[in-house]
Request: fold
Amino acid sequence: MLDLKDFTVKIGENTVISKMNLCIPEGQLHIIMGPNGSGKSTLTQAIAGNPAYVAEGHLSYRGHDLTLLSPQERAHLGIFVAFQNPVVIPGVSLITFLKTIVNAHRKARGEETLDAADFLTQARNCAELVGLDESFLYRNCHEGFSGGEKKRAELLQILLLEPSFIILDETDSGLDRDAFTLLVELINRLRNQNRTWLVITHYDHFLEALQPDCVHVLWKGMLIEQGSPHAVKEQLRVGGYQGLASRKGVLES
Amino acid sequence: MSQDDGIINDFLKQDYQYSWETLIESHSFPPGLNEDTVRAISKKKKEPEFLLKWRLQALAKWQTLKEPHWLAGHYDPIDYQALSYYSAPKSLENAPKSLEEVDPILLETYEKLGIPLHERAALAGVAVDAVFDSVSIGTTFRETLRSAGVIFCSFAEAVHEVPHLIEQYLGTVVPIGDNFFAALNAAVFSDGSFCYIPPGVRCPMELSTYFRINAMNTGQFERTLIIADRDSTVSYLEGCSAPRRDQHQLHAAVVELVALEGATIKYSTVQNWYPGDRDGRGGVLNFVTKRGLCAGDRSKITWTQLETGSAVTWKYPSVILKGNRSIGEFYSVAVTKDRQQADTGTKMIHLGKNTRSKIISKGISAGHSSNAYRGLVRVGPRAEHARNFTQCDSLIIGKNARADTYPTVKSTNHTAHIEHEASTSRISEEQLFYLAQRGVDQETALSMIVTGFCKEVVKELPLEFAVEAQKLLQVTLEGSVG
Reply:
């Protein structure tokens, strides 16, 4: 369970997330929607512990107070963020990078590190599952990858690391039809009672395809609505985000 | 203070690991430099007349030259009369005949540095000449090499065993008046390594020299001469370290390489002199002249260097491409941190037709250090169709380090083809955060980023040392993320 209470995030003097309350029970998939600049990505970064963001209030996962933990320690608890723009690491092949992150997690769990041959087999299989050609494994990490290829590379990491809490930050954006279908299939295959999801998206069709347990609407750093996919869609039908904000009386806040 | 600064500060906590000193009774000349000093060194080495004359010419030339201060990297003027120009362990006064006769404390010193000199313990496939202060204490695998016709010994021994080769080649690549420090070296050099590969021979082992400065207030002036005769091949590696001292130690070496027709010389350096403390006190002043001459057609010289030490480094391993179709290459990784200053690069002088050169330089600067690439590509009027490719990349860690590039091209031949690429990047907080989010600790993250950055150069090092070099890079940058 991920639990936020009175959770506030600032960048410099600006309050981007203000006094947010959000609870995602174990095994559930929640979606957060909201217009550009509403704080979706900031929320993601703050949960992952990016030091550029100053967070206050309560943030815990499975009973661990995340505010006391470094980004790396949070990762070792099973928290994974699929970023929109994974960084390029010149001169480091994707396969080397993948092996490093898998072994970092194994080490944290006190397990033996994998040898190169075992790892390669596993990485090849997972690459096939996310529709990434094997040749990408030997290319420099994320260098020259298209938007879709970057997202597949992030999904590949999910398959290898098997995290228990996954944040998808607009992973559906910019995907072609086939890639989108594959993404939905993968997510649905990975869903189980021990894995919890927070999915950030702009699009209704993702919402329909995933059938989340709950949908939240984020407006200027505040959650202004939550409910079933059907209920939230109805709310947004008239006047979009702005109409909803207006009816909630938070348009000018 | 940002996270990044915190990371960098931790990096600076890493200490130099070869800072210990060997306690041994040495015989040193009293400080001071004049004709008598030079005569005394020459006498100590029982040198032939031609060499003494050569040294005295160099001294006379040096006295007319001015200490250079125009490069990147500040140092206070050196008092040359306060330095001692010769220091050798007493036990080596009567040159030991073999390694078995060498004082065990010296053998232990090299053991501790990871360079065991007993042949059964030695790194297989690598012959080592160990130089301690001003003298060579011994060379391993000499017999194995001799049976292949290869001469590999200390410079002092070569002067007695093959004086004709010394007389023929010494100073032909780096003349005595080349520059201030080269002239000083020519006057007072005490030892170094010599290597000759006969025609058609592929040297059966890696050759290596390990330099250790131990004595206080002593300059180290070694001289290395490598001659690769027609169609021969040799790979040579140089390593070095020095104990911690509060005063600067001067290291002014000269390396000359001669590659005759069809010969190949690969010269690699892993330089790890004491860099001084965090505030810039002490450390080695590394003012070295390294130059290779591709004398014959189709000859090839490759310089590969991994520079992590020294307070100030000035070093431009260069190649004169005289033979037609000769090739010069320079691969360099220079790492600076704390108050270290490095000004390093290369010169590729194209004289022959269809000559080719390639320069790959990677500078990594952290802390308050500065790291400059300075290079010259010159194409002479007769160097038809000469080609050069240069790539200079800088990686900056933290906010207080600096990187500069000074590439110069002088071409007097319109058929020349010269390409230059350069980049400067910073290890970004974004990169470090991304890797942390993937559960990677910051040491490993930095090491991965740096390894990727240096890959093109490290793969050029001899296999036996590539792993070692990788470790050295990691140790040097250890703690740079915390």
Summary: Strands of chain A lie at 2-11, 14-24, 29-33, 54-61, 64-65, 79-82, 165-169, 196-200, 214-219, 222-227. Residues 2-89+164-248 of chain A form a domain with the Rossmann fold fold (CATH 3.40.50.300). Residues 94-108 of chain A form the longest helix (15 residues).
